[in-house]
Design brief:
Elements lengths: L2 H6 L8 H14 L2 H8 L5 H23 L6 H25 L5 H8 L2 H13 L1 E3 L1 H21 L8 H27 L1 H26 L6 H28 L2 H4 L6 H13 L5 H19 L2 E3 L3
Antiparallel strand pairs: 1-2
Helix pairs in contact: 2-11, 3-6, 3-11, 3-13, 4-5, 4-10, 4-11, 5-9, 5-10, 6-8, 6-13, 7-9, 8-14, 9-10, 9-11, 10-11
Length: about 300
Amino acid sequence: MNRQSSVILSHPKVLSASGLWWGLLGVAAFSFTLPFTRMAVDGLSPLFIGAGRAVVAAVCAAAVLLVTRQAWPSGTQWLRLAVVGGGVVAGFPLLTSFALQTAEAGHGAMVIGLLPAATAAMAVIRGRERPTRSFWLFALLGAMAAVLFASLQHGGAGQLRWADLLLFAAVIAGAVGYAEGGLLARELGAWQTVSWALVLFSPLMLGLTVFSVTQEPPVATPVHWAAFAYLGVVSMFLGFFAWYRGLAIGPMAQVSQVQLVQPVLTLLWAALLLGEHITVPTILGGAAVIMCAGLAVRARLTRKGS
């Protein structure tokens, strides 16, 4: 076992600064995902974007695994990789791509703001982590603040739309993939986990990509292709290097809460890249989200039997 694995397997009960910074780096990479997806769907079909970005990432993953001569996962690990892939390789990208055909990136950030709380819940179920009451309080307040400030961005919450249902489903898919991936990264390594998941799902995603091309041949501008390239290389591949590394160092439920700042960053990029309007309530709400995230990650974590 190498030194990196030994550190990851230590399962600290107190939040590690290293885990926090790796998590923040992953969040920074992911914060561009919704704006670039919204940009790409103006010129490319959502099926092509959701599946094709996974194919691009799988090519990168296969190359890195081959060059570094990584050992193959075990039988049980393959099953767990299927859970990871179903959540973050297939589920989240496809669901958000279809949702952002009609929803703005800022509106998507409102719903995706629920992802940290959902990931923490999955960590409790799957990772046997038991956060304190104060942790849950701050996590809930952070999720509520994320929903509130993004709702105010669009003039208040309206009726539930089909795009909202897709985004809620994306939250569940992402939370399952994050939690299982964070656990598996303690065994396989952070970048190895996402790489093997991408390789495992590559036949399915390649098939969907080919199907999308036959149904709607991609015709897009260089800007659309640049956005697509970011989604494939960074959002689907490099970002997970940092994110799963942070979750693996853990504690997972606490590190996952740094994603509460993602809606703030996403709305900022949406304003700069897409021209979406930012209001004073948005600024105040963003400050509240960051404050709640900071309080949540400082809350101590206890485990069953401790």
